[in-house]
Specification:
The complex is a heterodimer of chains A (462) and B (445). With 462 residues, chain A is mainly alpha-helical. Chain A folds into two domains: 155 residues, no CATH class; 230 residues, MetI-like (MetI-like fold, Orthogonal Bundle). Helix content of chain A is 77%, strand content 0%. The two termini of chain A are 60 Å apart. Chain B folds into two domains: 135 residues, no CATH class; 220 residues, MetI-like fold (Orthogonal Bundle). Chain B is 68% helix and 5% strand. In chain B, strands 2-1-3 form a three-stranded antiparallel sheet. In chain B, helix 1 crosses helix 18 and helix 12 crosses helix 13. Classes of the chains: A mainly alpha (462), B mainly alpha (445).
Chain lengths: 462, 445
């Protein structure tokens, strides 16, 4: 049976369980003087039966699906001869992929040896028996769960409380997914990064001044591999972020000040959503704009001044990223400026200060911690931004702070290292996870600081 | 002891002191006032300038995309009279369908072009002549012959799709003043196209192919249908996962969660996840779903799961706000007549909060629709010609199609990229408009 068929069967059986539980409660109640004698409404007994039947079966099915490929992988590999098992990990992966492709009918037998063909039929037989066991298991669990629930149905049984208790756990599980996601991110990135640092020492990574992973294509080339120095990537990322901030902070902050202190209500209700459109535009669109419109424009402009501007200059990528971040800085600063109590403004105005003196000498100093927090959030967003730099920034890591030259960033390198067909275990691929780890921690740190500062600031005026 | 006299004397003294200093201050203030007012004006203008800068950026961005993308919605066609000669085609009316599919359609098209311009000679010139017509014309002819094998041997007139270079000339995008070496459309091609145009043998029509085809190596044959379907499947998975999970999580956190460390941990995690760069989620998808669980690469299933994790914080946060905004009197009324907590929430609180929750869900979906970086990680960046049929098929999504086309230097693809962006933006505008509409209705209540 296909997985979708099993899912469908599971849903149908769960609905049937509901009906059975519902009927059963009526039948039981009839012996005790009608449904008034039941603790809960008949449908609660139905829900209970359905939950007891469907929920465990669903969990088992999902678990099975999650681990099916892994179990198949190890079983099939175990059946292969010694010589194959002692192959290098990357070759073994290719070998196994061929088996699976043949077993699923994607390639013909001409590219395979006898061992592989044998393994493929073993794979298929395992898959087939797995399907039968899976279907049977799901069926048995449903019948067992429904039976157990049906047996419990008595007028005194508190079905509604039972259902609500189960449901509370489901709700909890849903909110716990956030924790699992974070754990998943940390573990997956950390795990691969540790393997990377076994090959490349941590100090080389953190303090190396050169980044050229292109040489380490094959695992046996590690000795002669390229260098994995993080510094040029970090400098490149910071350079583009700096350019972006030089655009986004003045424009965003001044817009926020104007909107919250000067603009009429009508102007604000029209112009604020319009500027927020900039935040809703997909980043790939900005990337296209940067690569095909802004970068050539800046290059031509530079040429007319006699400057030599790279066609993938940090300036172009940073400028467009700055445009993207304007609404972000604007809304955050706007929130914070409006949170400054009016009493402070009125006191200053009452002393005869003009509006701009009030803003510069009273409102902004009061709002400064919050604004800095907002800017930190914007910086973290700029560091993690991917598509603009992938499309408009360079690929070669150059250690420079000249915004007219091409630099590369952490996210660009992650994408270049992982897009395309790559052996999963080469240091080159693992390097992407090490970069991901550093990216995750830098942005996490910035966010934690920023959120802390913003929260502290809000508390101050509440 | 203070006598009345001394007090009044002192007062006089103070008065005269303040008088003098007031006069001085007034003079100073009056002198500086002009400067201060000028500065005030200037400051206001800085504010206006900042807002204006934002508007200008927005306008430039949209104008650039629209002006580049609009021509992609039309396509030039060239009318040719074609002799469906059985000898040239290598098939006749009695051939099987398979043979008809293999027939040499390029030959008859080329011959008809040579007939049209008999003066063309030399291999290079001829190749340029053939380059006026798209390779898609052969497919069109093939489909026609397969449907009407009885027309073999007849002479028929066809509107054939122009090659993207010829197409861009016919749409007036080629500047004839640039030196010939710098343009794709050469002088003799220009002359032929001008002649065809004069004879009324060219036409510009709405480019339906753009919406009905998958990706292609030829710009004039490339379309976004495969990417649209990929986006549809991916977003379906995302919605089916993130909406229920997000709403349930919001209900738990807002209504049930006890104040303890575990709840704090969950809340901190949700807030942090909202700010984690999306590419890191892509790494998670690659390491966990593809390498650990062995789910297929490039499939909307994995893409949908990853996007669901990305949109989850958005949906949870907006749903919590919506649930919190429900008036306590509704809750209290339900509880007072004996409803359980869960009944209160599902029968009374949620229906009222639904518009707000939907607003959040739509915003989350819009975010997911435009997301591309994490999908690059899990291999949804492939050349997809065929429309995917399920969530397990290899596919790509609209933003990634944009990314792939943007890499192509050909003018035809740049046009298509902008047009695909226009479609993407259209979807986003519709979704956001819906969200705003729902929010407005919600606010009225």
């Amino acid at each position: 049976m296909q997985t979708s068929t099993i899912f469908l069967a599971l849903i149908i059986l769960t609905v049937i369980s509901f009906a059975l539980g519902y009927k059963r409660s009526h039948a039981v109640a009839a012996g005790h003087g009608g449904i008034k004698s039941l603790h809960s409404l008949p449908r609660h007994y139905g829900y209970m039966t359905a939950l007891w039947a469907g929920l465990p079966a669903l969990l088992i099915l999902l678990l099975w699906m999650g681990f099916e490929q892994r179990v198949l992988h190890s079983l099939v590999l175990a059946s292969l001869p010694e010589s194959v098992q002692s192959m290098q990990e990357s070759q073994l992966g290719l070998y196994y992929n061929q088996i699976v492709s043949f077993a699923t009918g994607n390639i013909d037998s001409s590219q395979l040896n006898a061992d592989q063909i044998g393994a493929a039929s073993y794979f298929n037989s395992l898959l087939a028996s797995g399907r039968i066991i899976k279907s049977a298991l799901v069926f048995v669990i449903i019948v067992f769960g429904a039976g157990l629930a049906m047996q419990r149905i008595r007028p005194s049984f508190r079905a509604r409380n039972n259902v609500e208790n189960i449901f509370k756990w489901v709700l909890f599980a849903c909110s716990f997914i956030a924790v699992l996601t974070t754990a998943g991110i940390v573990l997956s990135v950390l795990f691969e990064a540790v393997r990377f640092f076994q090959v490349i020492p941590l100090t080389d990574f953190l303090f190396g001044l050169e980044w050229s992973p292109q040489m380490a294509i094959r695992a046996d080339q590690v000795a002669a591999s390229g260098s994995f120095g993080f510094v040029p990537l970090f400098v490149g990322t910071m350079l583009i972020t700096l350019v972006a901030m030089l655009i986004a902070v003045p424009v965003g902050l001044m817009s926020a000040i104007y909107m919250s202190e000067y603009a009429t209500k009508r102007f604000r209700t029209i112009s604020k959503p319009m500027l927020e459109i900039l935040a809703g535009v997909p980043t790939v669109v900005y990337g296209f704009f940067a690569a095909l419109t802004v970068a050539p424009f800046i290059r031509n402009l530079g040429e007319s001044f006699g400057l030599n501007v790279s066609s993938e200059s940090a300036l172009a990528a940073g400028l467009v990223m700055g445009i993207m971040i304007i609404p972000f800085v604007m809304s955050l600063s706007d929130d914070i400026i409006t949170a400054v109590p009016d009493a402070m403004r009125e006191a200053s105005l009452g002393l005869g200060a003009t509006m701009n003196e009030t803003i510069r000498k009273v409102v902004l100093p009061a709002a400064l911690p919050g604004i800095i927090g907002g800017i930190l959030l914007a910086v973290s967003r700029a560091i993690g931004e991917t598509m603009i730099v992938v499309m408009a920034a360079g690929l070669s890591a150059k250690l420079t702070i000249n915004p007219l030259e091409a630099v590369t960033t952490v996210t660009v390198q992650i994408v270049t290292l992982l897009v395309g067909d790559q052996e999963f275990d080469s240091p080159k691929t693992l390097a992407a996870f090490a970069l991901g780890l550093s990216l995750f921690f830098v942005t996490l740190l910035l966010n934690v600081i920023a959120l802390y500062v913003v929260r502290k600031y809000r508390e101050q005026y509440e | 002891m203070w006598s009345e006299n001394t007090v009044s004397n002192m007062n006089k003294q103070i008065d005269s002191n303040t008088d003098r200093s007031t006069n001085r201050n007034t003079a100073v203030i009056a002198a500086s006032l002009k400067k201060r007012y000028a500065r005030e004006k200037r400051f206001q203008w800085y504010g206006r300038l900042a807002v204006l800068t934002g508007f200008i950026f927005l306008f430039l961005l949209l104008a650039d995309i629209v002006s580049k993308g609009t021509p992609a919605f039309t396509q030039s066609f060239i009318k040719l009279s074609i002799n469906l000669d059985p000898e040239k085609l290598g098939v006749d009316a009695n051939s099987t369908e398979n043979e008809l599919r293999q027939a040499n359609y390029a030959a008859v098209i080329k011959r008809s072009l040579r007939k049209k311009f008999p003066e063309v000679s030399g291999r290079k010139e001829k190749r340029r002549l053939y380059r006026l017509i798209s390779i898609g014309a052969e497919y069109k002819l093939r489909d026609y012959i397969v449907a009407h094998p009885e027309d073999i041997g007849k002479r028929k007139e066809f509107w054939l799709r122009a090659h993207s270079e010829a197409d861009s000339y016919l749409k007036g995008q080629v500047d004839k003043n640039t030196p010939e070496a710098d343009r794709r459309v050469k002088d003799n091609q220009v002359n032929w196209l001008n002649q065809l145009h004069k004879e009324g043998l060219t036409d510009t029509r709405f480019n339906t192919t753009f919406f009905t085809a998958g990706d292609s190596r030829e710009p004039e044959l490339a379309g976004i249908k495969a990417a649209l379907f990929g986006s549809f499947f991916t977003l379906s998975v995302t919605f089916l996962l993130s909406f229920p999970i997000g709403v349930f999580a919001a209900i738990y956190l807002q209504e049930f969660a006890p104040r303890n460390r575990l709840t704090d941990l969950i809340e901190i995690n949700i807030n942090n996840l909202a700010a984690v760069p999306s590419i890191v989620f892509g790494l998670l998808g690659l390491a966990v779903f593809i390498n650990f669980f062995g789910l297929p690469r490039s499939a909307p299933l994995v893409g949908g799961i990853v996007l669901a994790l990305i949109t989850l914080p958005t949906i949870i946060i907006t749903s919590r706000t919506a649930i919190q905004a429900v008036s306590p009197s509704i809750r209290e009324a339900a509880l007072a007549i004996g409803a359980s907590k869960l009944q209160t929430i599902f029968h009374h609180v949620l229906p009222v909060a639904m518009p707000g929750i939907f607003t959040g869900a739509i915003i989350g979906m819009a975010q997911a629709l435009g997301e591309s970086a994490p999908l690059l990680m899990i291999g949804m960046v492939a050349f997809i010609m065929d429309v995917p049929g399920s969530i397990m098929d290899s596919s790509t999504v609209l933003p990634i199609q944009v990314y792939l086309w943007a890499d192509n230097p050909e003018h035809g693809f740049m046009e298509k990229t902008s047009a695909a962006i226009m479609v993407l933006l259209l979807f986003l505008i519709i979704m956001n408009a819906l969200a705003i509409y729902l929010r407005k209705r919600f606010e009225l209540k």
